[in-house]
Design brief:
Elements: H1 16-36, H2 43-56, E1 60-64, H3 67-77, E2 85-89, H4 95-102, E3 106-110, H5 121-126, E4 132-135, H6 147-157, E5 160-164, E6 172-173, E7 176-177, E8 184-188, E9 202-206, H7 209-218, H8 240-249, H9 253-273, E10 289-290, E11 296-299, H10 303-312, H11 342-350, E12 351-354, H12 362-377
Parallel strand pairs: 2-3, 2-4, 4-5, 5-8
Antiparallel strand pairs: 1-9, 6-7, 6-10, 8-9, 11-12
The protein binds pyridoxal-5'-phosphate.
Length: about 375
């Protein structure tokens, strides 16, 4: 997690500038919840849900305990379980696939598109069987998956689409907001996401009253009324403290995302200027998409050596993600061999996330790119 910047070192993520600019309001929000003595659900959560739904462009938002639980509760709401299959990309954060196994269903993995790192849509459609109940496209790093052909294929077959929009709050696909396109949209407020809480939190979007009510019930063990259960849910509640923190931060999200987008544009110029644009591959933003750059991920030859070089120069980086799902030990029983998804396996060997947070200065961005140039050009 975030390292405080020291001297010339540039951490992968530094949340302190954002925190300090809002410190008084954040502390006031924490005290307000403490004084209210309302520690479970209630008005802070209601107010947060209404505001964030409007901001995201969804009809309803149901706050939950994490992005992981957002995915889990969506699968539960669809009644997905034993004997069912759910199609997911093999290249994502673990939760995308873990939640499928947790409800007793079988994850069916597919490869990614090499340019966007998102689900290979023709492969996903080809992976549909009579047991497929849902597809979980991931809007990886903050760029939407190609949703229209996926939604179209899913609707024609009566299959649900659950968007893993954990990294994509505010991203757009053909002028439609991420997380409002499928049956459910799942968001995370893990501190390193563009909108981060003071701990774990998440939410699920819903477009109908029925789905919203079902999510609300499932997040309190499925009870309605209290202590009467027709359904089995779980404790998936968002804390009022996190809701209060997020209410303070949410109005600044658009500005922070614009700063990330500006940094990405600035990086592009610097990579060109330093003669690196034919060596490393920069993130793409296809026409009609708006990337929110939760991560700025390059593809780099000799990635591990480059990473060690950057570490020695005080530049923080990370590998998202080093092992695709089909090669994870816990999924060995699914029987996917090495080589099954070559695009994802190549990405796992080549990707490197660079610092992109809004408070980075042009001089810091230049230091990062110059350190990369020094590695490849031997200067
Ligand atoms: C962060 C993340 C999640 C899980 O969110 P948590 O809030 O950490 O549980 C799920 N999917 C993706 C793609 C993520 O990046």
């Amino acid at each position: 997690m975030p390292v405080v910047s020291e001297g010339k070192s540039i951490p992968l993520l530094d949340l302190r500038p954002e925190y300090e600019s809002l410190r008084d309001d954040l502390v006031a929000a924490l005290v307000r919840v403490a004084d209210s003595q309302q520690y479970i659900l209630g008005p802070e959560v209601d107010a947060f849900e209404q505001a964030i739904a409007a901001q995201i462009g969804a009809r309803y938002a149901v706050g939950v305990s994490s992005g992981t639980d957002a995915l889990l509760i969506s699968l539960m709401a669809l009644g997905i379980g034993r004997g069912d299959e759910v199609v997911t990309p093999t290249f994502s954060f673990f939760a995308t696939a873990g939640c499928v196994t947790r409800v007793g269903a079988r994850p069916v993995f597919v490869d990614i598109d090499p340019a966007t790192y998102n689900i290979d849509v023709p492969q996903a459609i080809a992976a549909i069987t009579s047991r497929t109940r849902a597809i979980i496209p991931v809007h990886l790093f903050g760029l939407c998956a190609d949703m229209d052909p996926l939604l179209d294929a899913a609707r024609r077959r009566g299959i649900a689409v659950i968007e893993d929009a954990a990294q994509a709050i505010g991203a757009r696909y053909k002028d439609r907001p991420a997380g409002t396109l499928g049956e459910f949209g799942c968001f995370s407020f893990f501190p390193s996401k563009n909108l981060g809480a003071f701990g774990d939190a998440g939410l699920v979007t819903a477009e109908t009253d029925e789905r919203r009510d079902l999510l609300r019930r499932l997040r309190v063990h499925g009870s309605s009324p209290k202590y009467y259960h027709r359904l089995i849910g779980g404790n998936f509640r968002i804390d009022p403290i996190q809701a209060a923190v997020l209410r303070v931060k949410a109005p600044h999200l658009e500005r922070w995302t614009e700063a990330r987008r500006a940094n990405a544009a600035h990086y592009r110029g610097l990579f060109r200027e330093c003669g690196l644009d034919s060596i490393v591959t920069l993130p793409q933003e296809p026409d009609g998409y708006s990337h929110i750059f939760n991560q700025f991920v390059i593809r780099a030859p000799r990635r591990d050596e480059l990473r060690a070089h950057l570490t020695s120069r005080g530049v923080g980086t990370e590998i998202y993600y080093p092992v695709p799902f089909h090669l994870q030990e816990c999924f060995a029983d699914l029987g996917y061999p090495s080589g099954a998804f070559p695009i994802s396996e190549a990405a796992a060997r080549e990707v490197l996330a660079l610092p992109i947070y809004g408070a980075l200065t042009p001089a810091q961005l230049r230091l990062v790119v110059e350190a990369i140039a020094a590695f490849y050009h031997g200067r």
